[in-house]
Amino acid sequence: MECPHLGSSVCIAPDSAKFPQGSPSSWCCSVCRSNKSPWVCLTCSSVHCGRYVNGHAKKHYEDAQIPMSNHKKPEKQEKVQHTVCMDCSSYSTYCYRCDDFVVNDTKLGLVQKVREHLQNLENSAFTSDRHRKRKLLENSSLNSKLLKVNGSTTALCATGLRNLGNTCFMNAILQSLSSLVEEFRKTLCALWQGSQTAFSPESLFYVVWKIMPNFRGYQQQDAHEFMRYLLDHLHLELQGGFNGVSRSVILQENSSLSASNKCCINGASTVVTAIFGGILQNEVNCLICGTESRKFDPFLDLSLDIPSQFRNKRSKNQESGPMCTLRDCLRSFTDLEELDETELYMCHKCKKKQKSTKKFWIQKLPKVLCLHLKRFHWTAYLRNKVDTYVEFPLRGLDMKCYLLEPENSGPESCLYDLVAVVVHHGSGVGSGHYTAYAAHEGRWFHFNDSTVTLTDEETVGKAKAYILFYVERQARPGADKL
Fold first, then answer.
1. How far apart are CA 57 and CA 85, in angstroms?
2. Is 433 a known active-site residue?
3. Catalytic residue among 85, 168, 324, 329, which?
């Protein structure tokens, strides 16, 4: 939110000598000495713990307001101070008077200057400690950061993303996708620089806040919804549609379009559609007169239902009943379906709504096939999660049987290999936590916000996937045809 209290509350110099020594993320509360969730007051630079520890940062604000309330009839209201503080780990800013996180800055940009100073202190603390960490990395007890490849040991080359306050939904998607435009590119390039400290994507996050109002604030969001909005806006920017036209006007004009069809309408192809874009053929048949209607729909991902007969199967090792597979979900998506009474088809020949059947074919496969498993379903009052385990292949997902014209496809053009998985942990879309598995240079990594660990294919295969990213397998030159 836009906070009106920054001018009276942000009073410390960005390079203030009053700051404690050491890494800001490890600073201790001046009251209880806890180093968990430290927050620094932007009025006086004192450090206190957050509300989920002992709440001394909030008490510091409340105590600062007491002298003001003792004046019965002040001639002039004094400026309220000690209302704004900054998280020393994520560098997000919070105003206690507004009771919300802050996205704006002072006229002199003091909030961003303090943020940069804290980041520099964090990096300096890391640099001064680098020699000690390097020795520790050589110790066999830290093998989780090392990997033997062809007899030689290499360091873990991946970097995590800081959680800026329930932003794991964003981190999981960023850690799964490839480079597209500037802020996105800079963020994702930082993921593979091999830095031992977590990268903080606040620049991208604030851009997201500006162009995607639905994602403002620090409440938990749906990772799939974020991914679709992100790709939609990247597609619009890459089209150059903003040249000479107000950004807000274009966003308002497109706000009425659904996420499923916004990207490929009335615009040239971009790297987004070139990578993720495919085409569906939608066939509808009137059950009364037999009239067939065909329509081609572009897609960036496919949202697949988990068939109802599998929804009680919660783990891979559970023995009761058959196991749900990704093929079951794909078959359910493409099988012939009779539409119910609420989805009657307007038959142009009968000139009225009639019962009908619907079937999807894939007319064109994308280079990157994104499969979204629909784990959240609305009931009368709440949104429930389908916690069913769905078995998925890590290699050789064959999409040929779902094509409209499979005979026109080469032997390997329909085969896909897994490169990333987004997982939702918890019971509801508005709560829980997102993590991601991603493959890089033949190795699998588990991204849990700022924590990155090497993992193996067996662990990846046991994940309860929410979003799966598959890459089209490239035919090998001169390979024998089967």
1. 8
2. yes
3. 168
